[in-house]
Amino acid sequence: MSIKIVVVDDHHVVRRGLVFFLRTQKGFEIVGEAANGIEAVELVKSLKPDLVLMDLVMPEMDGIEATRIIKKEIPKIRIMMLTSFSDQDHVIPALEAGASGYQLKDIEPDDLVTSIKKIMSGENQLHPKATSHLLANLNKSQVKNALEELTNRELDVLKEIAKGKSNKEIASSLYITEKTVKTHVSNLLGKLDLTDRTQAALYAVKNKLVD
């Protein structure tokens, strides 16, 4: 089954280039494109794609606000930010809004394809530059220290998330069912006041649970 994608970017050449490239990739179906956040919100509500490739800085409505609205309307949708900004002032709001991935426009084409597929499999993707800047600037006001509230099994699952493993891989590694993994993920996100797996992974790294 093809991954249905909406491409959002206010630069016509960039947007058309992405659409042309992604249409050459097996398993991808471009169902729509938009030039700003307002168009993106309306288009996504109508088409209900699997993934939105979202620019960050756009007229009318930026990618962060569009992401926030879209995720509220369609919680299960995947959104990847594709931008030129890697600083925490852009990365953190995007992740808090519900983005499952944050990549920079200098990403190699093949890496972009891989990143999209990983996001659709349940993983979260951050460009190395974004990760580096984010971890260098995270502070206690942005990351709640509540590890003591986690059970030992939830802590194990958190560590596995930080290693980039999917629910299926975590289940195999910890010898539990995938359904149990999903329950642990939901519980630990609530206890740590986090919204998604990307934030959970960053939390684990910041608190030195993994290298």
Overview of this protein structure:
With 211 residues, this protein is of the alpha/beta class. The model is unreliable at 139-144 (pLDDT under 50). It starts with a strand and ends in a 5-residue tail after the last helix. It has helices spanning 12-23, 37-47, 63-73, 88-97, 109-120, 128-137, 152-162, 167-174, 178-191, 197-206, and strands at 3-8, 28-34, 51-54, 78-83, 101-104, 125-126. The protein is globular. The protein folds into two domains: 3-137, Rossmann fold; 147-206, Arc Repressor Mutant, subunit A (Orthogonal Bundle), CATH 1.10.10. Helix content is 52%, strand content 14%. It is built from ten helices and six strands. Residues 143-208 form the HTH luxR-type domain. Pfam families: GerE (PF00196), Response_reg (PF00072).
Describe the structure using short key phrases.
2 domains, single chain, alpha/beta, Rossmann fold, Arc Repressor Mutant, subunit A, 211 residues, DNA binding, globular, WalR-like, NreC/VraR/RcsB-like_REC
